[in-house]
Amino acid sequence: MNFSELSNRRQSTRSYQVGKPVEPEIIKKCLEITRLAPSSRNCQLYHFTVISGQIAQRAARLISENFSNAHIPAFIVISKLDCKPVTAGERDYREVDIGIAAAYFTLAAAEAGLGTCILGGFDESGIQQLLNLQDRILLLIAVGYASPDEFLRSKQRKSLQELVTWVE
């Protein structure tokens, strides 16, 4: 599968197969690919926490209503490390780097046959308490095998004309 095909195949998965856990080796392979994501000055000022099983089900109750009753086999919790950020002037690039890493993970997971959904709507303090984390949690990524009723949806995106300005 080439990158164009992968980009067209990857979508936010909101329904996962019940009783089919994700093999840790597959998640590890996806994280190995994610490690290769570019980051400002290659500092990688983020941390991934992988949760599954009963802890994942408890975490699912701490996210938005769309998922509160869902069976989600695993989550990748992405934390912003509490350290002096790499800056250019006053700009902190950690959140940009986390977004890039999340994109790498979701594409690696799609290549491995997994469904994912990047989540920003969650009870951060609840997740921190559940996992005994101190660092800021910026994103969760739901991970699992898409349920059979998840079909490949057509992508509705703005046109290039709306998104791009060419300057010569």
Topology:
Layout: H1 3-9, H2 24-34, E1 46-52, H3 53-60, E2 74-80, E3 87-88, E4 91-92, H4 94-111, E5 115-119, H5 124-131, E6 136-144, H6 160-163
Antiparallel strand pairs: 1-2, 2-6, 3-4, 5-6
Helix pairs in contact: 2-4
Report on the architecture of this protein:
This protein has 168 residues and is α+β, with helices and mostly antiparallel strands. It has one domain (3-163): NADH Oxidase, CATH 3.40.109. 33% of the residues lie in helices and 19% in strands. It contains 6 helices and 6 strands, in the order H-H-E-H-E-E-E-H-E-H-E-H. The strands form 2 sheets. It has a 4-stranded antiparallel beta sheet, with helices on both faces. A two-stranded antiparallel ribbon has the order 3-4. A hairpin with a 2-residue loop joins strand 3 and strand 4. Helix 2 (24-34) packs across helix 4. The longest helix has 18 residues, at 94-111. The chain starts with a helix and ends in a 5-residue tail after the last helix. Keywords: Oxidoreductase.
Please identify the structural class as seen in this structure: alpha+beta
Total strand count, please? 6
Specify the biggest β-sheet: 4 strands, antiparallel
CATH fold naming:
NADH Oxidase
Q: In which order are the strands of the major sheet placed? A: 1-2-6-5
- What share of the residues lie within helices? 25-40%
Low-confidence sequence ranges: none
| CATH architecture descriptor | 3-Layer(aba) Sandwich
User: What's the helix count?
Assistant: 6
Rg from Cα: 17 Å
Span between N and C termini? 34 Å
